[in-house]
Write a structure and sequence with these properties.
Length: about 400
């Protein structure tokens, strides 16, 4: 089954085209990204497997035009990989927030669209863009089935005592204020892949997955199910991130609003886009830039990186306590897969659990690897995440099931 996987951001469209034979046998035919949608000049970067990257700059006023550009490129005689759009059998979308509506992926219909729209309140930077992507595909490929996979779905197994906040209960009953988490597709994938890689039974295991990137979250996975996670009502909660502040004392929000005369939207902008690595370092939101600055002696860059490391250590400690131990710690995401120093500094704090770190194996960079010693009581793995294949698998199963009915 030829499946197009779409991940729409507010000004971008990431995509992969996969030929799915079954869950474990597939080919990535092409992948790319459309960026700067709505700006004066946009950009398409497209790579067909085995060929050189194709880059073009041109105006891309909206997501509908961006989606048409993707489809035109996939069928282009020179750069494309499809003879016609008729070859696309299904489209799968990543959706950041599904609220309490969705615990699994779903076939797109108007009821599903309405529920995604309701959840725009919880993910105002993401869900509206996802809806634009779905509508854009409907306009260009009206007869092709679409499936949505939710970042929050994996976390629907978290028990109420872990997802509720100590606010008046009506905040939950009226407005559904509770912990939802994020990165669920990645956490589920690397927990399952990591368990196999480490020789563990996912259904009898205690795994802590650390998805560390520009956005970061840590999840406790007990017997294959999420039982707690660091992100909360929104993806703002948890550890310090690229431009997000992570967990702070809630009273800081009204305090700063009163001091500086800020509106709620302005305060939200500060916490989501002007904080984190960028706010602390006053230089960059990119961990690679901070590494370079820290190596040259920049104290603010060092502080930002130490705050991330400290936050990851705290959450691993909390979740080990929640699960009465831990069998496997997994690192994934842009930083988790590529920053050996962070992995080392985190793991050195868990010798009391019997974790024995393999410093030589930790030189692995962006590839699956066990980075603990054979006699370590806690295994540690670097596992490359692949959210697109999870979306493609779910899309294939749901569409095939629908066709059988």
């Amino acid at each position: 089954m030829i499946i197009l996987v779409i991940n729409c951001g507010s000004s971008s469209i990431k995509y992969q085209l996969l030929d799915m034979k079954n869950d474990d046998v597939y080919d990535v035919l092409a992948k790319g990204i459309v960026e700067k949608i709505g700006l004066e000049t946009g950009c398409l970067q497209h790579t067909a497997t085995g060929r050189e990257k194709y880059i073009v700059d041109l105006p891309i006023p909206d997501h509908k035009v961006g989606m048409k550009l993707v489809l035109d490129t996939l069928t282009d005689p020179e750069h494309g990989v499809l003879k016609s759009l008729d070859d696309i059998e299904a489209v799968g979308h990543r959706i950041v927030h599904g609220g309490e509506f969705f615990s699994t992926s779903a076939l797109v219909n108007e009821d599903v669209m309405k529920k995604i729209e309701i959840c725009c309140d919880f993910a105002p930077l993401h869900n509206p863009a996802h809806l634009l992507g779905i509508r854009a595909v409907q306009a260009v490929l009206p007869s092709v089935p679409q499936v949505v996979t939710f970042d929050t779905a994996f976390h629907q197994s978290i028990p109420a005592y872990a997802y509720m906040y100590g606010l008046p209960y009506e905040c939950y009953s009226k407005y559904r204020v509770r912990k939802y988490g994020a990165h669920g597709t990645s956490h589920q994938f690397v927990a399952e892949k990591g368990a196999k890689f480490a020789g563990l039974d996912i259904n009898n295991s205690r795994i802590i997955t650390c998805h560390i990137g520009n956005g970061s979250s840590i999840t406790a996975v007990l017997n294959g199910k999420s039982v707690d996670t660091s992100m909360g009502f929104t993806p703002l909660d948890g550890v310090i991130m690229g431009t997000r502040c992570g967990s702070i004392d809630p009273n800081i929000v009204p305090y700063l609003m009163k001091k500086d005369g800020l509106t709620p939207d302005e305060m939200t902008e500060i916490m989501n886009k002007k904080s984190g690595f960028l706010g602390i370092s006053e230089a960059s939101s990119d961990a690679r830039d901070l590494d370079a600055l820290a190596n040259s002696g920049d104290q603010k860059a060092k502080l930002a990186l130490k705050m991330l490391t400290y936050g990851v250590i705290k959450y691993i400690g909390q979740f080990a306590a929640v699960m009465n131990g831990v069998d496997l710690i997994v690192f994934t995401g842009g930083i988790g897969e590529h920053n050996s120093r962070l992995r080392r500094r985190v793991c050195e704090n868990f010798s009391y659990l019997g974790l024995k770190f393999d410093y030589q194996a930790n030189t692995a960079f962006g590839e699956d690897a066990i980075i603990s010693l054979p006699d370590s009581k806690v295994k540690v793995a670097l596992i490359t995440t692949d959210e697109e294949i999870v979306i493609a698998r779910d899309t294939m199963h749901i569409v095939m099931s629908e066709e059988e009915n």
